[in-house]
Amino acid sequence: VSMIYYSLTKEERDDVFYHIGQRNPDENPEFPYVVELYSPKELATAYRVLYNSSFLTRTKSQYLLELLSRTQFRQEIPRGIPSTITIAHKIGEATRATKKELPQVSFHDCGIVYYPQRPYLICVMTEGIDIKQASEFIADISTKIYRYIDEYNLKLRS
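Given the sequence above, the corresponding structure tokens read:
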């Protein structure tokens, strides 16, 4: 991501962030040393933009979602979901850097679960807990949401 980010001019980055409805980190004078954390809504917006092909062409949007569905990380959102269900997601962690330390501040996983006939977007972020606890929390929330959607879908079919 950094390679793509820095290959664009400031004007191009401004244009991208404007069109996908997110804050441009360039606007923070301390960037990249202090990263402003995005909200789940802001991160989910990026997936919505890809899903709806509202910024890139359909082909390019689908290509990016396909790449995101190939991730090997199965510990968070995908953990409680059958492996037959495609999930385009990305985990991430944010830190607040100082000159002496780089403490972890948040850990998250966001993406699209392609539940048959009912795909849904999920973005779970944590703050202030270690990565192992955060991973468990995200997996638990994701599993509960999947089970709810699955039970709802079964009721509709009966």
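The chain is about 40% helix and 15% strand. Try to locate this feature in the token string yourself.
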